[in-house]
Amino acid sequence: MYDARQIANEFIQRGLDDQRPLSPLHIQKLVYFAHARHLALHKEPLIFQEFRAWQYGPVVRDLYDDLKSYGKRRVTQTIPLADERQAQIEDHGTIDWSYRSFGHLDTFLVVSLTHEPKGPWERARKSGKAISNDSIREYYAEPWIAENKTLLDRVSRHPEIVADFLQSQKEFEEGRFFSASSPEEMLEQIEQRREERDAEGA
């Protein structure tokens, strides 16, 4: 598990690289969706902090405290981390997916996506409790797992990678999920995993 500020720094840097700096509110929601995706597909949390159900969606208090000086302005630099080792992120899959999916949307559209009826935010808001990881996973797991299965099925139609597709199905069933948003990206990930297996066997 990571500190939410590590994940936030990934989004901050991507926004700066794209010359589209993100607001603190937008960053909070990107961290939330990356965390939710990781929970849904891997059954493990991405960050160790909890999300609170604030007015404008899920919020990690530690992250809020570090970015509150920006107010509504765009964040122009990453958050300093006390431990340099915290800067190392091993799995970028869900981070990349969250940024591709929500990073270029209007901030308040992303906020509205966290306010879905009967969703984790709404349920926690009514109860006055933190948003539990169980409620996040239960809400997002079914549609996102179905999405991955659909992508795998579409990729299987490429005869040149049938053997690798079958291996990918096995990995999928074992919990090694993909974070692609198109068959083309899935093909790239399958090829990358094939290269990793070949390197391990060398």
Kindly list the characteristics that best describe this protein:
about 5% strand; 2 strands; 9 helices; about 200 residues; about 60% helix
Q: Uncertain segments of ≥5 residues (pLDDT<50)?
A: none
Structural class: mainly alpha
- Measure the end-to-end span: 30 Å
Order of helices and strands: HHEEHHHHHHH
Question: Whole-number average pLDDT?
Answer: 85
Strand content: under 5%
Task: Describe what this molecule looks like in 3D.
The protein has helices at 4-17, 24-42, 61-67, 93-102, 107-113, 120-127, 133-155, 162-173, 183-201; strands at 52-54, 57-59. The chain is mainly alpha-helical. A two-stranded antiparallel sheet has the order 1-2. Helix 2 (24-42) crosses helix 4 and helix 2 runs parallel beside helix 5 (107-113). The radius of gyration is 18 Å and the shape is globular. The relative contact order is 0.15.
The gist of it:
The chain has 202 residues and is mostly helical. 59% of the residues lie in helices and 3% in strands.
Break the fold down into its secondary structure elements and pairings.
Elements: H1 4-17, H2 24-42, E1 52-54, E2 57-59, H3 61-67, H4 93-102, H5 107-113, H6 120-127, H7 133-155, H8 162-173, H9 183-201
Antiparallel strand pairs: 1-2
Helix pairs in contact: 1-2, 2-4, 2-5, 2-7, 7-9
